[in-house]
Amino acid sequence: MISVFDIFKIGIGPSSSHTVGPMKAGKQFTDDLIARGLLAEVSKVVVDVYGSLSLTGKGHHTDIAIIMGLAGNLPDTVDIDAIPGFIQDVNTHGRLMLANGQHEVDFPVDQCMNFHADNLSLHENGMRITALAGDKVLYSQTYYSIGGGFIVDEEHFGQTTEAPVAVPYPYKNAADLQRHCRETGLSLSGLMMQNELALHSKEALEQHFAAVWEVMSAGIERGITTEGVLPGKLRVPRRAAALRRMLVSRDTTNSDPMAVVDWINMFAPAVNEENAAGGRW
């Protein structure tokens, strides 16, 4: 069963498939190097990005995400404020520290980050990462970003990676859920909670959603206080901060009970703009 941990997860923008997945792939690659005892031998890393990942790669920060993943970061914990400076340093010096500073390698971006319009055989969101020692290939792995921030390597593509955990109310469609609710008298949310408790402790669920809410709140706050334009060639101006000023200025005199909807409509573009700017969500 797909858990709420899979659905409500913390990442960075602009895209789960093109940003979150590639960062996780970069991190997985360096983890594999460490597990195989190869990290210290690596002199250079080369990344090849294919298909849809390539065609929208720059706009969705795919290249940045992979580099940050190779550096040892994950989407839910990476310091988003430190990303621009880190990438600038890599671009300037052509060197990359792997795995949280454990080993430095050559990484001239114009040679080591390559975009290919054609698809790999299994999926349109493909990437291949290769570790070299001089001209010798030490390790190479192909990953696919299959949606929602999920990644799979070529060997395990299409396979179920974990044995399913039995839940009290299994379902395949909405009709199954309705039947369970009728038979048990549980609400839909109550029924799903029982399934989740078969996968996680109540404490873990509470901690996860507290963390999700903290990130959501921080994203709103950044969105409504940040001015300027969004990244990209179109230079789209941010709107949420101006909307907030307008709402605050009229809030004390507005007696319309539906005014709260205007605030909700302001929070939405605030988070949208943070996502577009590579913020955490």
TrEMBL record:
Chain segments annotated as coiled-coil in the UniProt record: none
Q: What is its EC number?
A: 4.3.1.17
Domain of life assignment: Bacteria
Is Transmembrane included in the keywords of this UniProt record? Answer: no
Q: Which InterPro entries match?
A: ASB_dom_sf (IPR029009), Fe-S_L-Ser (IPR051318), Fe-S_L-Ser_mono (IPR004644), Ser_deHydtase-like_asu (IPR005130), Ser_deHydtase_bsu (IPR005131)
Q: Which SUPFAM superfamilies does the record cross-reference, listed alphabetically? A: Serine metabolism enzymes domain
Instruction: Provide one Gene Ontology biological process annotation.
Output: gluconeogenesis
List cofactor names only.
[4Fe-4S] cluster
Q: Which UniProt keywords apply?
A: 4Fe-4S, Gluconeogenesis, Iron, Iron-sulfur, Lyase, Metal-binding
Q: Where is the Serine dehydratase beta chain domain?
A: 3-155
Q: Which GO terms describe its molecular function?
A: 4 iron, 4 sulfur cluster binding; L-serine ammonia-lyase activity; metal ion binding
Enzyme type, top EC level: lyase
Domain (Serine dehydratase-like alpha subunit) spans: 183-280
User: Which reaction is recorded as catalysed by this protein?
Assistant: L-serine = pyruvate + NH4(+)
- What is any Pfam family matched here? SDH_beta
Which family is this protein grouped under? Answer: Belongs to the iron-sulfur dependent L-serine dehydratase family.
Question: NCBIfam families, alphabetically?
Answer: sda_mono
Q: Per its record, how is this protein called by name?
A: L-serine dehydratase
